[in-house]
Write a structure and sequence with these properties.
two-stranded antiparallel ribbon
Length: 163
């Protein structure tokens, strides 16, 4: 089995473990909302960047159907976003909240750079690490804003507060 396929299987397992064990039960609704919202965003943006030839996924699942990576766009990024929103430090200072955003974006960008450099799971064509970092920041921010808006509209702002 090729290294790329092993990595894809490991990412599936890690993502599922994160969804099952890294999200507190009382924060599951926020995590679920964030997961679905991030799925929608990353699926669309992933298709756009591939269609514009900015990056490609040489090794991917469902290659005859789609040119983007289902694992990363549809499972891994949304799972991490669910954990991000479930543990968001909403009662902390704006500096801590910004550091929280930056830590997630930097960690994910670093992993993507390593995957891009050492495997054939992703190839940057007309793309760089800072576009990844900025797009992650924008999608994490939009998912956070959506969750705040969604639960405030439902009259449940307390569900977004820290324990």
């Amino acid at each position: 089995m090729k290294l790329e396929w092993i990595i894809l299987y490991v990412v599936w397992v890690i993502s599922l473990i994160l969804l099952l064990f890294a999200i507190p039960k009382e924060r599951a609704r926020i995590a679920h909302t964030a997961f679905l919202f991030k799925q929608m965003i990353t699926w669309i943006l992933g298709l756009v960047v591939v269609e514009f030839g900015l990056l490609e996924y040489p090794v991917r699942e469902l290659a005859s159907v789609n040119r983007t990576s289902m694992t990363f766009e549809f499972l891994a990024y949304p799972a991490i976003c669910a954990v991000f929103n479930a543990h968001y430090p909403s009662k902390r200072s704006i500096l801590i909240q910004l550091a929280y955003f930056c830590a997630y974006c930097t960690g994910m960008t670093t992993v993507e750079l390593l995957i891009e450099k050492y495997t054939k799971l992703i190839d940057y064509l007309d793309w760089t690490w800072y576009w990844t970092w900025c797009s992650l920041f924008a999608t994490f921010l939009s998912s956070r804003l959506f969750c705040v808006w969604f639960f405030k509209k439902r009259g449940e702002p307390a569900t977004l507060q820290e324990k």
